[in-house]
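Q: What does the assembled structure look like for these inputs?
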Amino acid sequence: MKTLADLKKIREKAQEEMKLRGGNVRIKIVVGMGTSGIAMGAREVMKTFLEEIANRNLTDVLVTQTGEKGLSSMEPVVDLIEEGKPKVTYGNMTPEKVKKVVVEHIVNGRVVSDYVVATGN
Amino acid sequence: MQDISLHLLDIIENSVRAEAKNIKVRVIRNVQKNRLRIIVEDDGVGMDSQTLEMAQNPFYTSKEEREKKVGLGIPLFKQNAEATNGCFKMASEPGFGTVLTVDFQLDHIDRMPLGNLKDTLLGAIVGHPEVDFDINLITREKGLEQSFHFDTAAIKEELGDIPLTYPDVIEYIDQSLYEGIQNTSVEDV
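A:
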């Protein structure tokens, strides 16, 4: 069974890491979780992002959920927000596309233009 | 929606949009009573009786920015529950919050599966770090009760300034939920 003592160990490890690289969030991922997004598979998209972050040990990435934004025909929709860069919106996402976005965009810094449905604000 | 936990996720998102700070989720599988009950309770802005009535109408949405005024989340959940001899109850008080109770007949042929409760709860917890989730999973079968309680406020207190999206924390929450769901066998439905 997982206990709060396990969390204490995680906290100590994370604090060590943060001392080394600073606590900055490099990329924020926002997954659209409105009714139509959920019906089109946004839960699996969210889950795949979380799995990839855990597997690749990406400690400078943040994932959050938000409501609908009027792109219902392109759900599931995901925004990637990077400091000092225009926002990139990916549409019609699937777990496979998420894996590609994580490798290409988040790890290697190259936007996956095939999946982009909007940029900027 | 293909399963009950997707409906649950939709309802949780409603609570978040209603500015809830605390969301309680109960999943109670009662074999004796042949009932699967889902309760979601939030401390969001709540609704007056007129809005509460309208929320169950598919041609109403609280999403002001929308051009198409359609809100299918609640009506579909209600329909899916009522199709299994179940029932759907929503109570609310402006300024205090909303409670939703949904019952399904456990062995009804039209009852959707509970689905992936773990991924639903994991996404909601990590995706809304500003909200505290209090989760209870309960199975009552052959006079025995098995329960699992998960409170994210305690976890956040222990973590301090470490975010919930820290890789080891994601794994911790995922594993805890997995164990809780296995031990209470709520998903075996």
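The interface with chain A takes residues 1, 6, 9-10, 13, 16-17, 63, 65-67, 71-73, 116, 119-120, 122-124, 126-129, 154-155, 158-163, 165-172, 174-176, 179 of chain B (CB under 8 Å).
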